[in-house]
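Design a sequence for this backbone.
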């Protein structure tokens, strides 16, 4: 039978051209054969319609025509969760039929994260050996056992040294168990019913609420629900609630508070949905209402972060007496990608941002924000969802034993003190009324140029004044500099997005260390070369990683100075072995003569002749050691006489004034500022030297060099050279 909606309509004119119509809604059952034989599909008038024909086929013609409009309504199957073939003799388990959350018909496809790729090779080898065992019938149990033990060891090494960004990647794993998975695993059998709607708009599927029991005790469950596949994620809006979702959660909290049900919330959301419609409906107000209400609820509240907790969208159901986090979960005020885009102008710095934001469960527990870290199996919660759910159940049960002993006032005060104790403050510290912020591209840990120059000069002085190459003060300074450089390089690898590649390569190298395959080792070497080439390419960009570049230059300079000093000490030892005792005695005479001159004693002509002879003999000894004498330099120059020093100071002052006049005349101030900017920016040596040469040429072209030269020649210059030459 096909259902037809029949509408009878009588149209005509009464005393004019005005039409009148009487419509009668009618439903009747008509067999399809009768429909085909007795009704003629014709032209459509106003709506899809048919003209009635009598069996003879003649159409009824009159001024008052009668026609019937028939519309076929296709039967729609209900979308209620009750099945069609429900057992009429069912005596229990009715609540399971009320949930739309059913097991997936297809098993989720395995997903390999970026840092897990080295483990895939182990898995492939194990599968290949098992396949060979099945095909050949040979016993490969020892090989399989060895590979499995290596796989477990590699898995353990990998998951016990995870970086913050890797933990966040696990928290976002597509196959990670959802909130409803955990709820169904920890509640008693057939003791869970989902509740819907906020009674003010519609039911937001991004937040699920309901009542369930654990060990016979009823709880109100509230949580963000992600999808298990693309279709579900679209339906659940990727666990990003609208204001209706938060108002639904608020309604259920008040319901639980009225009926004295403890509240358990599960947090797993990137954040509240930030579209225009949600803002128009009061997204911020809905979150604020939840925050204020949760601090006044008179029942215990326990929150568990099962995945990622993003900003206020997570905190709107997270103001609890006890906050637990799964081992690989994350809680943050802004996602690392967003933080990196704001601070470093690139999402590639997300690993660095994740480290600075302190988003992991371990960091939250260390700062006493989280009350406990719930362990996960190796490989993440998706490796064994049931075991993970049981760990959550155990943590909830223990927390309820503690909170159940508190009365209403103690619960509210306990919740308030938990959040009051987070963070810190300072008293008595003056605050700048206005502070300008530099919103330019920030460099990673870039040190000030002046500080580095002072540190460089200090390091030079320590190396040159050290008693030997292995001086403890110099060694300590160099070790500290090496540690700083290592840390800067690690930070640079993270910000360039090369950290995961490096860790993956390290695992491959550790796995291939037992292998003697040269081809594999060559492939590893090529990968290392590619990573280092990319690193140096990023490092050499103008203006990038200035702090690291300057510290590397400082470290290279220190090594060169130490190397030169070691060569000098070695050469000094060789020369001392070749110099006769007589020459050494004459060198002492040279030293005494230099000290007398520095004290201002008058020249002694005999002493001068003796010093000159000693100097010539020393030169001959050095030449006999195959050393070329380029020039002789005084170690300590005696101070000039007071009158000469005064005249020299006057000439220097005039030279400085003449240079300042030349700069003002030629307008080189901007050029000098540009030179300083290029130096601070870390520009190439060629660019800096070119600017210096241009400035010097223009200054010399304008300066009155003749006058300055005459004044210099008029100085009463005395012979200040020591007898050493």
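Sequence:
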């Amino acid at each position: 039978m096909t259902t037809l909606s029949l509408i009878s309509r009588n149209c005509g004119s009464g005393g004019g051209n005005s039409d009148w119509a009487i419509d009668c809604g009618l439903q009747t059952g008509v067999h399809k054969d009768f429909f085909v034989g007795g009704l003629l599909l014709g032209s459509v008038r106003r709506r899809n319609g048919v003209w009635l024909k009598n069996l003879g086929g003649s159409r009824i013609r009159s001024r008052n025509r009668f026609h019937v409009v028939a519309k076929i309504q296709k039967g729609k199957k209900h979308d209620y969760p009750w099945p069609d073939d429900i057992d009429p003799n069912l005596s229990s388990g009715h609540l399971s039929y009320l949930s739309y959350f059913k097991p997936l018909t297809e098993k989720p496809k395995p997903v390999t994260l970026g840092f897990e790729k080295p483990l895939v090779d182990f898995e492939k080898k194990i599968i290949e050996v098992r396949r060979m065992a099945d095909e050949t019938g040979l016993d490969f149990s020892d090989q399989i056992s060895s590979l499995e033990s290596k796989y477990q060891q590699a898995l353990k090494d990998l998951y016990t040294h995870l970086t913050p960004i890797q933990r966040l990647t696990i928290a976002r794993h597509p196959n990670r168990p959802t909130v409803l998975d955990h709820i169904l695993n920890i509640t008693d059998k057939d003791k869970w019913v989902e509740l819907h709607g906020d009674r003010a708009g519609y039911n937001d599927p991004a937040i699920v609420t309901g009542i369930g029991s654990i060990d016979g005790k009823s709880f109100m469950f509230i949580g963000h629900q992600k999808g298990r596949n693309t279709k579900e994620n679209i339906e659940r809006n990727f666990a990003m609630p609208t204001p209706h979702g938060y108002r639904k959660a608020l309604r259920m909290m008040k319901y639980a508070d009225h009926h004295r049900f403890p509240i358990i919330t599960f947090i797993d959301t990137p954040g509240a949905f930030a579209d225009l419609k949600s803002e128009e409906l009061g997204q911020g107000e809905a979150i604020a209402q939840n925050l204020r209400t949760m601090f006044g609820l008179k029942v215990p509240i326990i929150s568990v972060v099962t995945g990622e907790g993003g900003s206020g969208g997570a905190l709107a159901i997270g103001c609890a007496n006890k906050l637990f986090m799964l081992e690989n979960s994350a809680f943050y005020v802004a996602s690392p990608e967003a933080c990196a885009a704001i601070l470093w102008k690139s999402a590639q710095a997300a690993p660095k941002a994740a480290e600075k934001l302190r988003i992991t469960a371990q960091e939250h527990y260390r700062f006493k924000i989280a009350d406990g870290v719930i362990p996960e199996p190796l490989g993440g919660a998706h490796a064994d969802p049931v075991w993970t759910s049981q760990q959550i159940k155990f943590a909830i049960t223990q927390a309820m034993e503690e909170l159940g002993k508190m009365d209403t006032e103690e619960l509210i005060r306990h919740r308030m003190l938990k959040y009051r104790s987070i963070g810190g403050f300072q008293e008595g510290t003056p605050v700048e009324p206005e502070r300008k912020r530099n919103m330019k591209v920030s460099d990673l840990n870039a040190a000030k140029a002046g500080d580095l120059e002072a540190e460089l000069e200090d390091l030079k002085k320590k190396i040159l004044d050290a008693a030997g190459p292995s001086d403890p003060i110099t060694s300590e300074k160099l070790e500290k500099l090496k540690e700083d450089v290592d840390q800067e390089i690690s930070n640079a690898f993270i910000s360039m997005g090369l950290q995961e590649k490096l860790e993956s390569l390290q695992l491959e190298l550790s796995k291939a260390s037992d292998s003697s395959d040269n081809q594999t080792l060559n492939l590893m070497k090529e990968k290392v070369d590619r990573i280092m080439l990319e690193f140096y390419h990023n490092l050499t960009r103008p203006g990038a990683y200035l702090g690291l570049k300057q510290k590397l230059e400082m470290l290279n300079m220190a090594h060169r100075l130490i190397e030169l000093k070691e060569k000098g000490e070695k050469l000094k030892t060789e020369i001392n072995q070749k110099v006769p005792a007589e020459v050494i005695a004459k060198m002492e005479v040279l030293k005494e003569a230099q000290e007398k001159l520095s004290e201002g004693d008058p020249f002694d002509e005999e002493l001068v002749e003796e010093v000159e002879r000693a100097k010539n003999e020393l030169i001959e000894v050095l030449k006999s050691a195959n050393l070329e004498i380029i020039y002789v330099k005084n170690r300590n120059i005696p101070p000039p006489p007071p009158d000469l020093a005064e005249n020299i100071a006057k000439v220097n002052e005039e030279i400085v004034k003449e240079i300042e006049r030349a700069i003002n005349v030629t307008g080189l101030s901007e050029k000098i500022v540009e030179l300083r900017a290029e130096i601070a920016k870390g520009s190439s040596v060629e660019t800096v030297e070119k600017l210096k040469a241009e400035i010097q040429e223009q200054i010399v072209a304008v300066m009155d060099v003749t006058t300055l030269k005459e004044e210099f020649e008029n100085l009463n210059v005395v012979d200040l050279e020591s007898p050493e030459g």
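The two ends are 126 Å apart (CA to CA).
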